[in-house]
Design goal:
- The chain is 33% helix and 24% strand.
- It is an alpha/beta fold.
- It has one domain: 3-Layer(aba) Sandwich (Rossmann fold), CATH 3.40.50.
- Strands 6-7-8-3-9-10 form a six-stranded mixed beta sheet, with helices on both faces.
Length: 259
Amino acid sequence: MQRAGYGRSAANRRRLSQRNAVAGRHRFRSGGDDGYALRDVSFGIDRNEFVFIIGPSGSGKTTLAKLLIREAYPCSGEVIIGRRNIHSMPRRYIPELRRKVGTVFQDFRLIPRRTVAENIAFALEIIGTRRSEIDLQVQNMLAMVGLRDRSDAMPDELSGGEQQRVVIARAMVGSPGILVADEPTGNLDPENALRVLQILSRINEQKTTVIVCTHDDTIVNLMQKRVIVIRDGVLTSDQRVAGYDMGADEPYSERGIFY
């Protein structure tokens, strides 16, 4: 089978990009014995799909998440979102890309002197959205993550689980078609981790593509979704499984190169 973005005409790539939310093959130079954090990683993700990208710490998951929002750059290859290779487009389109791809990172990145509601509203304010629309969207997001009663709280008054839910609300307030979450449950206790997963599942049910990067196979087993495994920067498995043990040895699967 041919791999995404290679050996294809421009017309064929356009047809593929209409079917997939994300497609890509890339190499990224940063660390590792041969200088690459990711090597010939190739896969496609369908629109409205829920996918886990899992692997141990240092395997390349965070690098992959950053590639999807152009916080990192590949040395070669393509990362196609919708119809566009995001790493060849002019820099002026990066803000538009990041409105279409919501991101959730483990370190929260909340603005400390803004309330919960103000943190969620910020992304809409900077693009000039009308105040009435901002207020409506913020209330909808607060309801989605179960934080209506915490709208006026400051970030340092929230638990870790509450802060993560604010981050999810902020990522979704502009209705992006794709949500990328890097270790969204990494700092949470089991109860809050489950709540975050339930929110991500509801977001996916509302026709948003959800990509979760994690090293925790417990949450993968709970969700029973498609699982892409990365080890030492290499895609080693791509399958839908009822339960996955990251400690088990998995042979490389060609299923991830499925065009």
